[in-house]
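Quick one, T. Sequence first:
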Amino acid sequence: MSQGDGTPNPSILATTNSPMKFTSKDKHIWESKTFWLNSLALIAILGQMITGKEILNPALQTSILAMINLLLRIITNRAISW
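Structure tokens:
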């Protein structure tokens, strides 16, 4: 972005070119409830595929997982740091 005279706007450059930094508000991936929920869901789905036993209807499983993920997204207040 420019300032109108063709020169770059330094405030935009500072925000877009700076690398992500870990802050005290960030959390590691293993502290994420969403990560663990989806990991558990993946294990459950793989278990059902391997055994051939269907615990719940797949559409119902997907709906429940989506609702829980939405709720977790609503209560999330910290970013994941990679």
